[in-house]
Hints:
The chain is an alpha/beta fold.
Amino acid sequence: MAKVILLNGSPKAGGCTATALNEMVKTFHEEDVETELIHVGNKAVRGCISCGYCGKNGKCVFNDDLVNEVAVKFESADGLVIGSPVYYASPNGTILSFLDRLFYSTSFSKQMKVGAAVVSCRRGGNTASFDVLNKYFTISSMPVASSTYWNQVHGFTAEDVKKDLEGLQTMRNLARNMSFMMKAFVDAKEKYGLPAQEREAFTSFPDGK
Length: 209
Ligand SMILES: Cc1cc2nc3c(=O)[nH]c(=O)nc-3n(C[C@H](O)[C@H](O)[C@H](O)COP(=O)(O)O)c2cc1C
């Protein structure tokens, strides 16, 4: 069975972002996909300090929150959904600190794990935030699942989001598309293996060094 991890970057366990993610969870279950929804936004998550510890030890130097635990779950998952409220036209600070450390500290291959970003805003800054989150996937060889609109809901409270019928429809269609992709990639990995990747080149400078 395919498995997907969903991260809620909002400080609120039952807020707008959670409402969008829970709509996806319901659909994933209809599609026989296993889910784990992890609440990140209520933790005190510090930012990356670029210390290089993870390069030598394969995990983040800080054990003060969920990063190292989620890393283990992410490694065995087929997909990752990142949900965030929009704060000043960006994803919120907690989820960005978390993602910087999660993606930078893990060396396992994320190739062909499916990614999806979901944002919740009251009024604006949604697509800018969506772009930021998608960049974690697209630097990691992760195909991005899409839907019938950009993956966003609107509201200030969970009740508002429940009235955003197109937003919820977008979440259901996203979960269906993502389920299809995860199942297809599980089969394809077995049939063809993962595509080869080159890693030798690391930035070219004019003198060739
Ligand atoms: C610090 C802060 C900044 C915000 N900035 C924006 C913004 O730039 N654009 C917007 O539409 N809503 C903004 N909001 C509102 C939230 O993004 C919006 O209500 C969101 O749906 C809340 O999701 P949640 O209930 O999952 O936390 C902001 C809220 C906070 C607390």
